[in-house]
Specification:
alpha+beta; five-stranded mixed sheet; 5 strands; 60% helix
Length: 291
């Protein structure tokens, strides 16, 4: 039975307006669903139950619903495939970025080790080997710290403890700070390298070679600058020759401040060695990331 739809009747005009509003406010398939539901209601009001289920209108409506559901399924599947494709593209870009970063780090390590080999001195081959091994172990401690943190952001205190622990009891080091600062990989490597050289000199010739000698370490932020200080006290008289000319002096005075876009000052005061690193905060500090 055909469904009469007199355009002059008020209810049909109101229903048509409602469909238009749904199209404008929602989407076309919501409007189609509303239209089909309206046809079902109108058909049901005019026919008996048996006539209703046998009518062509109901058959058409059910087929339309199946088509709409099929279309929605295909659309959802297409969106899922697009999301999967986008995820793969992002992962591919991340892998490429990580490989480039790894290549840069490896080349940087090669350059540092080469500089160590050229600038490390020794009276004989055994002394040279011992110094080289300890310096490479110092580099390895920085890498171990980054790996232990899953290449996230360690704090500056983590860097200090990782590099100074092999040089004696923590009671020999007086660590003072405003608050812990999370540092990037470059700061971990170069500040760690400077700490290794300073601590090595302190054990051999400086404050840590005396029973009551201590080292004070402190850091702070001054505006947009990061300031780190190493202060020895209660040690033997300072000899500037011990930290001049070799790799240790170059690492402390050149490599570390240059890599972090700042400057440093190494002094040999009566109380002991003083080292101050002054670099832009943006060169060392990063926001902490979840492990």
């Amino acid at each position: 039975m055909a469904l009469p739809l007199p355009l002059s009747e008020g209810p049909f005009v109101g229903f048509t307006v409602a469909i238009i509003v749904i199209v404008l406010c929602c989407s076309w398939y919501h409007a189609v669903l509303a239209l089909l539901a309206g046809l079902v209601i109108a058909e049901g009001m005019m026919l008996t139950a048996e006539q209703f289920w046998r009518s062509r209108t109901v058959f058409f409506i059910f087929n339309s619903l199946v088509m709409i559901l099929g279309f929605e399924f295909m659309k959802a599947n297409y969106r899922w495939q697009q999301r999967m494709k986008d995820d793969l593209v992002r992962k591919d870009h991340k892998i490429v970025h990580l490989l480039r970063d790894l290549t840069h780090r490896v080349k940087n390590q090669y350059a540092i080790v080469t500089a160590m080999m050229r600038q490390t001195d020794g009276e004989d081959i055994d002394e040279y080997k011992e110094k080289m091994i300890k310096r490479i172990q110092g580099l390895a401690r920085s890498q171990d710290l980054l790996i232990d943190k899953n290449w996230k952001t360690p704090g500056i205190k983590d860097v200090i403890m990782a590099h100074l622990k092999p040089f004696g009891s923590c009671s020999r080091f007086d660590i003072k700070c405003e608050t812990d600062i999370y540092v990037n990989a470059a700061a971990v490597q170069y500040i760690g390298m400077a700490l290794h050289e300073l601590a090595t000199n302190a054990v051999k010739y400086g404050a840590l070679s005396a029973p009551d000698g201590k080292v004070e370490l402190c850091w702070k932020t001054e505006g947009d600058a990061f300031v780190f200080e190493w202060k020895e006290r209660d040690g033997p008289p300072v000899n500037s020759i011990n930290l001049s000319g070799g790799f240790g002096s170059i690492a402390i005075n050149t490599y570390c401040p240059t890599a972090l876009n700042g400057n440093s000052e190494l002094r040999f005061d009566r109380d002991g060695v003083r080292w101050r690193l002054d670099v832009p905060l943006t060169s060392v500090s990063v926001q902490p990331t979840a492990a």
